[in-house]
Amino acid sequence: MMLVDEKARQLLADAELIVPADVLTSTIHGMAQAITAELSNQYPLVLSVMSGAIVFTGQILPLLNFPLDFDYLHVTRYNRALQGGSIQWEALPRTDLTGRVVLVLDDVLDEGLTLAAIRQRLMEAGAKAFYSAVLVDKLIDREKPVYADFVGISLPDRYIFGYGMDVQGIWRNLPAIYAMKA
Ligand SMILES: O=P(O)(O)OC[C@H]1O[C@H](OP(=O)(O)OP(=O)(O)O)[C@H](O)[C@@H]1O
Ligand SMILES: Nc1nc2[nH]cnc2c(=O)[nH]1
């Protein structure tokens, strides 16, 4: 345990703060306004993608002042790795999706494979319309299979962590976004 603790602290000491907490707060307020303008009369089902979206979800939900349902799904393809692998479904929403307008909340849109798989699964399960909101869109040099309807911040293609996102499984609890030193 001591080794893990020291390694975790070293990872943070070696990282660079790239999005401070106050910038995240104002970004999320802006996103909430845009989402409200588009979806406030549609009684959406808001779905949080565990685990990375936990902090973003907890911050944005109280800013969405209109009727909605909330549930979660759990999908992962990075696990503790820095590179993505194949999609693993851990949990599907329990709410009936038939005819629903869904809004998926995720922390980061990177290669887009995760969000594309989620969209396909939810549409197959009967959703009427699919919207997505991502706190971070990574600027990668390839086309993505899906783009988000609501984007908080665009960031360069570096591995990021904090604010729900992990590095080797740790530091999801940080109140800001950090990047591994290039
Ligand atoms: O656009 P992509 O390249 O597919 O990557 C984006 C996905 O990667 C992260 O999840 P991860 O698999 O790390 O699971 P976690 O949320 O539990 O950390 C993130 O939360 C997104 O869901
Ligand atoms: N924690 C974390 N998860 C990711 N999933 C896809 N890209 C990233 C990233 O940069 N950081």
UniProtKB/TrEMBL annotation:
Transmembrane segments: none annotated. GO terms for biological process: GMP salvage; guanine salvage; hypoxanthine metabolic process; IMP salvage. Residues 28-166 form the Phosphoribosyltransferase domain. It catalyses: GMP + diphosphate = guanine + 5-phospho-alpha-D-ribose 1-diphosphate; IMP + diphosphate = hypoxanthine + 5-phospho-alpha-D-ribose 1-diphosphate. GO terms for molecular function: hypoxanthine phosphoribosyltransferase activity; magnesium ion binding. NCBIfam families: PRK09162.1. This is Hypoxanthine phosphoribosyltransferase. It comes from Nitrosomonas nitrosa. The lineage of its organism: Bacteria, Pseudomonadati, Pseudomonadota, Betaproteobacteria, Nitrosomonadales.
